[in-house]
Design brief:
By secondary structure, the protein is an alpha/beta fold. Helices cover about 40% and strands about 15% of the residues.
Length: about 375
C-alpha cells in the first residue's frame, strides 16, 4: 500500500474495505470503475474478502444474491453509477423486501456528480443517480475525501442491523487519485502466450477500412484511440461514431445501423470487457446479408479503469461468435497475420467476426470528443 494511497484524505480504500468487513462482508463482486480503482485494488490485496470481477453489473448482483442467500451474510457489489440501470432488474426482483428480502451493500462511483464537470453522458446519469436509488428505496451515504470514517461505520452498521440495503455513493477523489496504488499491475502482462502490439493493431485496422465505411467504437480507450488516429490522419474516407456511453452496446448500435444499410461496410471495434457485458446478447443469424464486421480487441482486462481482469482469457470468443451466427469468425495473435486477416474482413459481404489478442500498449494521452456528439450523427447522415 502506497503512502499516497494511505493519506488520500480521511477516507482511503482500506477505510472502506475495513468498514465492509466489520459488518460481515466477505464477498464482493462488480464491474471496475475509475473512481473506485484504489478500492478495488485493495479488495484484490485482501485475503479476508473473496473478490470476483463480473461481466456486467446485473451479474454481480446475481452473484451477490446467491452468496448472501447461502451464507446469511451481507455482500458487496461495486460499479460506476452509469452501470446502475443494468442492475435494476435483479435489484428489484431478488433483493426486494417483498421478494427474497436479501440485504445488499453497493459501493458506487459517482461520475457526473452535480456541481462537477464531466463527460456529457456522465453528467446525464450523474443527475439521475439519486433519483434511481430513491426509486429502489435506498438512502445512500455520499462519501467524500473529508467524510468521517466513523459515519461510514455507523451508516453500514445501522443499515445492516435493520436488514436493509445500503449504498456508499463515492465522489471522485474520495478514496485517492487514479493509479496511486503500488500493487503489481492488476493483471499479468502475459495473459496470452502470444499477442499483437496494440498500437500496430489500431493503425492496421484504420488503414484497412473500405471507402465510405462506418466505424462504431466501444466505450473506453478504443473510441479515443480512433479519435487520435483520425486527428493525425487528416482527410479520411470513413465515418466514426464513438460510443462514449452504454458500455457493451456498441455492437448492437452498429448492427442496427448495418441492418438499415446492408450494402455499406459497418465496423464495430469492441473491447473484450464490453463484448462480455452486452455483446453476447446480439443475434446476427437472421442478418446474413449485411456487411457487418465485428472486431474485438482482446487484452484480457478493463484497461481504461485500472487494468482489472476480465475472464476472456478462458473463453473461446470465436466459437461463441460462430454460435451467434457470424458467417466468418477468426482469431489472430500473430502480427504477421494481422493485415491478411483485416483484408479478409474487409472483403466479407456477410457478418464477420475477428478477435485480435493484443497487448496493453498505450498511445499516451488520448483525446476526448471536442465537438457535440450530435455532430457525429450529422456526419453519418451526410455520408449515408
Amino acid at each position: 500500500m502506497s503512502e499516497a494511497m494511505m493519506n488520500a484524505g480521511k477516507v482511503g480504500p482500506m477505510t472502506l474495505v475495513d468498514a465492509l468487513v466489520r459488518v460481515g462482508v466477505n464477498f464482493a463482486s462488480g464491474v471496475p470503475d475509475s473512481i473506485l480503482e484504489p478500492f478495488i485494488a485493495e479488495l484484490l490485496d485482501r485475503a479476508d474478502i473473496d473478490h470476483q470481477i463480473a461481466a456486467c453489473e446485473g451479474s454481480a448482483v446475481g452473484l451477490a444474491a446467491g452468496q448472501a442467500m447461502a451464507t446469511g451474510r451481507p455482500c458487496c457489489v461495486f460499479m460506476q453509477n452509469s452501470g446502475l440501470p443494468n442492475a435494476l432488474n435483479p435489484l428489484l426482483s431478488m433483493f426486494s423486501p417483498t421478494v427474497y428480502d436479501i440485504p445488499l451493500i453497493m459501493v458506487i462511483g459517482w461520475r457526473g456528480e452535480p456541481g462537477t464537470i464531466d463527460e456529457p453522458q456522465h453528467m446525464v446519469m450523474g443527475g439521475h443517480t439519486l433519483k434511481i436509488l430513491e426509486l429502489l428505496g435506498i438512502k445512500p451515504l455520499v462519501v467524500k475525501a473529508e467524510t468521517d470514517p466513523d459515519s461510514i461505520d455507523a451508516y453500514l452498521t445501522e443499515t445492516v442491523r435493520a436488514g436493509k440495503s445500503a449504498t456508499l455513493l463515492v465522489s471522485k477523489g474520495a478514496v485517492g487519485a487514479r493509479k496511486q496504488f503500488v500493487s503489481e499491475p492488476q493483471i499479468s502482462r502475459d495473459i496470452f502466450s502470444k499477442s499483437v502490439d496494440r498500437l500496430k493493431t489500431i493503425d492496421a485496422i484504420m488503414k484497412s477500412l473500405p471507402t465510405n465505411s462506418v466505424v462504431f467504437s466501444g466505450t473506453g480507450y478504443t473510441a479515443r484511440e480512433v479519435m487520435l488516429f483520425d486527428s493525425e490522419m487528416g482527410e479520411r474516407s470513413h465515418v466514426h461514431i464513438p460510443c462514449v456511453g452504454g458500455m457493451g452496446f456498441s455492437s448492437s448500435f452498429a448492427i442496427g445501423a448495418s441492418s438499415a444499410n446492408p450494402e455499406r461496410d459497418i465496423y464495430c471495434l469492441d473491447g473484450d470487457g464490453a463484448f462480455l457485458m452486452q455483446g453476447l446478447s446480439n443475434t446476427v443469424a437472421p442478418l446474413r446479408d449485411i456487411r457487418f464486421k465485428h472486431i474485438v480487441l482482446n487484452n484480457g482486462c478493463h484497461n481504461s479503469v485500472g487494468g482489472f481482469p476480465t475472464c476472456t482469457h478462458a473463453a473461446d470468443l470465436v466459437q461463441i461468435a460462430e454460435g451467434m451466427g457470424y458467417t466468418w469468425a477468426y482469431r489472430i495473435d500473430d502480427e504477421d497475420l494481422l493485415k491478411k486477416a483485416l483484408r479478409e474482413v474487409a472483403a466479407r459481404k456477410t457478418p464477420a467476426f475477428l478477435e485480435i489478442r493484443c497487448g496493453l500498449q498505450s498511445f499516451g494521452k488520448l483525446p476526448r470528443p471536442n465537438r457535440p456528439l450530435v455532430d457525429y450523427k450529422a456526419g453519418y447522415l451526410k455520408r449515408a
